Fold this protein.
Amino acid sequence: MDTDTGSTLKNPVHRYLMCAYAYYRLNENLIPDGEFDELANQLLAEYPKWKDHPHCPTEDDLRASTYLGDYPTIVQVATEVYLKRI
């Protein structure tokens, strides 16, 4: 995933949710599985910084490298637009 396409993808919470949505709901890989695991570990290590984000995955989701919550509409739309651009 090209992180230079906009500030949305530079935010690790947004990036995590978009990648999870693409993978679990659209059957698309935006990044390799290993990179997704690294992203989960990064968010977990920085959890105090991101935990107040309204859509931050839970620590359990991050430990499991998954996302079991509801995807905000903005994540769904942003992911679908991104997929059309690549």
User: Anything to note?
Assistant: The first helix runs from residue 7 to 10. Helices lie at 7-10, 12-26, 33-45, 47-50, 59-64, 73-85. The mean pLDDT is 91. The chain has one domain: 3-85.
